[in-house]
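Repro:
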Amino acid sequence: MNSSNRLVQKLWNFCNVLRDDGVSTIEYVEQLTYLLFLKMAVERQKAGLGEVVIIGLDWQSLLDRDGDELEVHYRHILESLPPSSAEQSLTSQDNRPVAFPAD
């Protein structure tokens, strides 16, 4: 199996874990976005555009793990990322999602 197929298989395996754990569609898309960000950071680095993600919290660190170790490490990566300004604006001070009024 070539490296591209391995990457796709690992991504789908993680998607299955998310779905089986009852992750909502919005959360699912958010997780896929993080994974794609990590993958694109590697592509950016390979193109000589500089590092975006700290080594050890990068795409390769995910590829080096399987099963429970992969899930634990991925959660560690998410906890290590600084919140974006969009996330900060949609989160209250006690770190709960902001409740938007119904229309």
